[in-house]
Design brief:
about 270 residues; single chain; Endonuclease III, domain 1; mainly alpha; Endonuclease Iii, domain 2; 2 strands; 2 domains
Amino acid sequence: MARPRTKRRKPDPIKAWVKRLDRTRPGLVIYVLDQLSGFYDRPTWERRWDPTSELVLTILTQNSADTNAERAYLELRKAYPADGLPQVHSPGPGWGGTGLPDGATPDWLQVEQVPLEELIEVIRPGGLPVAKAKGIQAALRFIREQRGDHSLEFLGEMPALDARDWLTQIPGVGKKTASVMLLFCFGLPLMPVDRHVERVSRRVGLLPKETAHTDPHDVFLAMLRPDQMYEAHVNLIRHGRRVCHAQRPEHERCPLRDRCRFVNPKAI
């Protein structure tokens, strides 16, 4: 009697892409990292803010300039001061803002429980205040109901993907927001992919053109070593903002142009 035929497992599209990239464009990842670190610098991870502040700031940056998000966060500090909470220190600028002065963490319980209309007005300088006020309150409520307070320090003790999965249970928190918070707060090996990172990576050819079955966050997790993720994230964002603009990229200044498929579709 013939044995029943077993179904062949479909190949993992992410693993297939990484193998293809290694075969057809050897050394591209190292080339991109080295060229960008020579053009900018090789950034060193340093914690900036407490994780709940980082999460709220990341929500405030969604579809807004970082400087506006920082203004909205400062308004939260002024409107809802918390006595006795530890001072937070930002050792440097955020993703593209000017950085925050030292100051106390806002009273998150107040932020969670104030009338929505009030919070909307407080964070209005950050742009899209209605959606962001709803998102911030929903996130704070979820954290408190799950943990009993608003602290997220426990995430630093978890494996990176488990911590990301926990955060993405929060309504409105996706992989990018979760990865930003975990990378910048704890140095966990995750690769946030915003519009700048994705634009530069697709133009150079680090990411495949077809994305239906290849989430860019997970492609980078398979492509990069854990110790490369912070550097890759920071410098790809810098490059997207300063040189590889969405409109009129400055090819003559670009350190990646010799191997960029946006410049030369046949580049290796």
